[in-house]
Amino acid sequence: MGFLKQPKNCRFSNKTILLFVLPIFLEQIMIAFIGIADTYMVSSFGEAAVAGVSLVTSIDKFVKSIFTGLAAGASVVVSQYIGADDKLNASKSMKAGIQILFLLTIIITAIMVIFKKKVLSLLFGAVESDVMQSSIKYFSVTAFSYPFVSLFSIGCSSYRAMGNSRTTFYSSMLMLSINLLLKYIFIYHLNLGVTGAGLSSLIAYGIVGIVLICSLHSTNNKVWLSRIYVYEGTKKMIKSIFGIGIPNGIENGMFQMGHLLLQNLMSTLGTVAIAANALYSNLSPLYHSLNSGFSLGITTFVAQCMGAGRPDEARYYMRHILKLTYVFTATNGIILILFSKPLISIYGLSQEVTSVGHKLLLMYVTGAIFAYPSSFTLANGLRGTGDTKFTMTVSLCSMFGIRIGLAYIAVYVFKMGIYGVQLIMIFEWFEKGIIYHIRERRGKWQNIKVI
Hints:
Blueprint: H1 14-42, H2 47-83, H3 87-114, H4 116-124, H5 129-142, H6 146-161, H7 166-189, H8 193-215, H9 235-267, H10 271-283, H11 285-307, H12 311-338, H13 340-345, H14 351-384, H15 388-412, H16 417-442
Helix pairs in contact: 1-7, 1-10, 1-11, 2-3, 2-5, 2-6, 2-9, 2-10, 2-11, 3-6, 4-5, 5-8, 6-8, 7-8, 9-15, 10-14, 11-12, 11-14, 12-14, 14-16, 15-16
């Protein structure tokens, strides 16, 4: 393909980009299979259990998105220091990011554990009683996993900032292997139901999160930690981390908050809609996992170009990686469409739930092929330059001004049900993508200084 051909002596070749993306893609696929395994195993306890786990998963995604946003902020700073060949400050900023994030997650965990019933009642008070009971049991366990999830998240972000995605792949393999083994034991042999599903994730994240942080002390890494218990962050460094991490965390958190509000809307549509949404949501990562690989890659490569003082190269890689994303994710999406029916049928739920879930999956993948890369991958390229306030503003205005408002109109005014919610989501992807393309072309991000 001629339009993917690169000039000679480029900083990052197609091979380098794809070798970075592939482990992340496989890692995200395995994480998706954990979600599929969760739903499959829990489905043996009925649709109420599936719906209950799905509701709590939306809360988990909200909390974890804040961790991911802050971790991404630290990784951009680390990447830019690496691009500037300043390994000492890269190491210090990496350690400061880990310390800050872990402290914040301890606070968040305490709040969620103490107020779990109030949180669930506030968000999903309209669900049936058996669904609520499943949610309470599952949330009572998963809330304790947040500190370990944060260690896993910041550890993976740190390795990716170095351009090392293989270690995160192996870490995910270990975590998922432990998770699946314990799920099988807890659910099928100890009959712990949704509690077992949550407990296996808690233990797996705990073991691998700690191991990952310990491995960052190895001097074989491009940059490494020393004396993790000693704080060495400078005022400028912390300002840079928070300057990117806070808008990123707010964007991710509010984005997931929007999803919670939409989940609340869908909870009023009945158990069939909730369960169908859970089925399609568990299979959708089979598409967007590849996009996630390119999104994480574009952040790292663009950030290193900016750290090296080459905004021209940053622009080139934003556009080039976006092209790669469209080619590979479109191919992946077509394959998923072809195999969508047997995939959605593996859960063995009622014909009505399976049928609705299949239609939602087809709508999702079809819209994503055309709009997802511009809406998400290009946004991550802008974040790599430090342009996180703009992406935050666009994302929040789009979510709360368009997606949520129009979804309620589609459901309550036009009586379109869950399909209306899905159509509005796809429309919002197109709208955000157009805005990000305009931002990239105008080039204001080239004047942003992170380090």
